[in-house]
Design brief:
By secondary structure, the chain is an alpha+beta fold. 39% of the residues lie in helices and 17% in strands. The chain has one domain. The chain has helices spanning 2-10, 13-36, 49-58, 98-105, 143-154; strands at residues 64-65, 81-85, 88-94, 126-131, 134-140. The protein has a 5-stranded antiparallel sheet with strand order 1-2-3-5-4, with helices on both faces. The protein is globular.
Length: 161
């Protein structure tokens, strides 16, 4: 009897799908809200989480928070901003400036985003991108969406006039 009540509480597959879609729309609305904050930030050329969200929203890849565990990357010196976007995952590390980012990323294998000679903890296919104070690993999703995300980051941000 308890199992029957539990199944009835779950609802039909259509209701579950509707709840999942509503949750996804809510997550995308949060990303868009965070992205809108980027317009108010000064033009320094330095990345922030708001800039990342803004660029991903503009790239049309529907960023939202990553709800699972993140890959273990102690060599990056910090936890990543973990997102789902474009059918894949995006892990972003933001440093104080490009010098601080280079101190970490120059020693990494540009094909894996991990120290040379080690196995990357990211699922293939992956793309490692650096731009100014940002380092990112894009993994999964279609080639088109991976390219959209890469271009959104590689375009950089406006610097002070």
């Amino acid at each position: 009897m308890v199992a029957l009540v539990a199944l009835a509480a779950c609802g039909s597959p259509e209701e579950r799908a509707a709840r999942e879609q509503q949750a996804a729309r809510g997550a995308m609305a949060e990303a868009e809200s965070a992205g809108r904050q980027a317009a108010a930030l000064p033009h320094t050329g330095l990345w922030s989480e708001a800039h990342v969200m803004d660029r991903l929203v503009r790239a049309g890849v529907a960023p939202r928070a990553h709800d699972g565990p993140t890959p273990h990357t102690p060599w990056m010196g910090r936890a990543p901003i973990a997102l789902r976007a474009g059918g894949g995952e995006v892990f972003v590390w933001i440093y104080a400036d490009s010098v601080a980012r280079r101190a970490v990323t120059d020693a990494l294998d540009p094909d894996t985003g991990a120290p040379r000679g080690t196995v990357a903890p990211f699922a293939p296919p992956l793309l490692f991108v650096t731009q100014n104070n940002l380092a990112a690993v894009i993994t999964g999703g279609s080639e088109r969406n991976i390219e959209r995300i890469m271009l959104a980051f590689q375009a950089g941000l406006p610097a002070a006039p």
